[in-house]
Write a sequence for this structure.
C-alpha cells in the first residue's frame, strides 16, 4: 500500500486560503473571538453589519449590530 505524502503548508498560506474561502462562500460570515470581538468578517457581512468588514474587525459584535 502506497504511503500518503503529508502536505504541510505554511501558516501564511493557510490564512490566505481561509480568507479566500470566507469571501467565496456566498453567505455572511462573522467570526468572533473569545471576548465577543469581531475577528474576521467577509464582504457579504457588510449588509448585516452595515459597515465594511475591515472597519468591523476588533469591534464588539453587540455594538456593531445595534
Amino acid at each position: 500500500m502506497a504511503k500518503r505524502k503529508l502536505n504541510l503548508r505554511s501558516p501564511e498560506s493557510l490564512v490566505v486560503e481561509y480568507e479566500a474561502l470566507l469571501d467565496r462562500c456566498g453567505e455572511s460570515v462573522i467570526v468572533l473571538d473569545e471576548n465577543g470581538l469581531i475577528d474576521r468578517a467577509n464582504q457579504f457581512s457588510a449588509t448585516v453589519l452595515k459597515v465594511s468588514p475591515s472597519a468591523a474587525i476588533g469591534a464588539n459584535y453587540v455594538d456593531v449590530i445595534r
